[in-house]
Amino acid sequence: MEKNKASRREFLQACGVLGLGLAAGGALPLAAEAAKLNGSAYKVSGTRLLMGTFVTMTVIHESRTLAEEAQGRAFEEIKRLCGVFNRYDAATPVSVLNRDGRVMGAPPELAEVMGRALRFHSLSDQAFDVTVAPLVDLFQKKSKAGEKLKLSGKEFESVLRLVDSKAVELTPGKISLRKPGMRVTLDGIAKGYIVDRASDVLFRHGAANHLINAGGDIRTRGERSGHRPWTVAIEDPAKRGDYPDVISMRDGAIATSGGYEVYFDREKMFHHVVSPATGRSPIRAAGVSVVAPNVMEADALSTSVFVMSPKQGIAFINSLPGRECFIVADTGAQIKSRNWGRSL
């Protein structure tokens, strides 16, 4: 997750404005600041470069010291979990799994995320699949070599056969990949999981009112100043400077998937999200934002919907109580789930 340009939303960055999260990111320098608000509360904001993106935490609390300490602990938790999920670091359990086809004594965090990934694979009718790593790696390799990308030939077909979440085996303390050459990428779910765990750390240490933005993966809890909800703006995939929508949230999460940031070819037909069925990069949606109770779920669902057609994606989200979706189609049309804007 740290260094590979093909990582999901790696170049998307966080917006640190008070009360505003940007659901697909905006340029922001590394920063840490504390400001006294009206009354007795402080707004304490911190930004660090983690998981290949800028992670911003904003806490509202009467004690500046408590807020800063809670933030420090939450950032440390992110660093710790990166040591589990970063597939580009040879020492992590995920890298061991990809190299050896199995990992013994799997950390509970990895086992939990892999288990949830397999459940989302089933729930989404196989649209979400963490075993697409060989496809993404193939496209990246050919892109770096300046070779033409094509969805045919023996090399592509042999790699496509490795995409199969049903060949992932979970047993107590062990994760196995039953096909030689299989690899997993947890970019579409682990970042959300890590943000959720950081939010839990803030909450446990008394920082109940906070917003975390990790490159468009956003978790909100409590309220911002003045007992108001947090405000989250949906990024325009066309980069025209407009926000297709702005929503208010207290306790919840939103994640955005889009292919408009990382491409492997000049024609912009291949990007970092691929269909596990065809190996193609979906092009019918420019951006998909999903609201869910936690970021891990919003992350996985936004990727799932992006792989589907907009019609299928909306129907899928409408079948899930308490989940909402906003799609910007490739034509620029905006498509919303049944209760978008009413139940957030």
Write up what this structure looks like.
- The relative contact order is 0.16.
- It contains 8 helices and 15 strands.
- It has helices spanning 64-85, 93-100, 108-123, 133-145, 154-160, 190-204, 295-307, 310-318; strands at residues 20-22, 32-36, 42-50, 53-61, 102-104, 168-171, 174-177, 210-214, 217-221, 230-234, 245-249, 252-257, 285-292, 324-329, 334-336.
- The protein is 30% helix and 23% strand.
- With 344 residues, it is of the alpha+beta class.
Entry summary:
The chain has 344 residues and is α+β, with helices and mostly antiparallel strands. Helices cover 30% and strands 23% of the residues.
In angstroms, what separates the terminal alpha carbons? Answer: 30 Å
Kindly report the spatial arrangement of strands forming the biggest sheet: 2-3-4-8-9-12-13-14-15
What radius of gyration results from the CA coordinates?
Answer: 19 Å
Report the uncertain regions. 1-20, 25-29
Total E-strand runs: 15
Order of helices and strands: EEEEHHEHHHEEHEEEEEEHHEE
Q: Quote the average pLDDT.
A: 86
Major sheet attributes:
9 strands, antiparallel
Oligomer description: single chain
Q: What fraction of residues sit in β-strands?
A: 15-25%
> By helix and strand content, what is the structural category?
alpha+beta
- Per DSSP, the total helix count is 8
Taken from the alpha-carbon principal axes, the silhouette is: globular
Percentage of helical residues?
25-40%
Task: Give a quick set of tags describing it.
nine-stranded antiparallel beta sheet, globular, 8 helices, 23% strand, three-stranded mixed beta sheet, 344 residues, single chain, alpha+beta, 30% helix
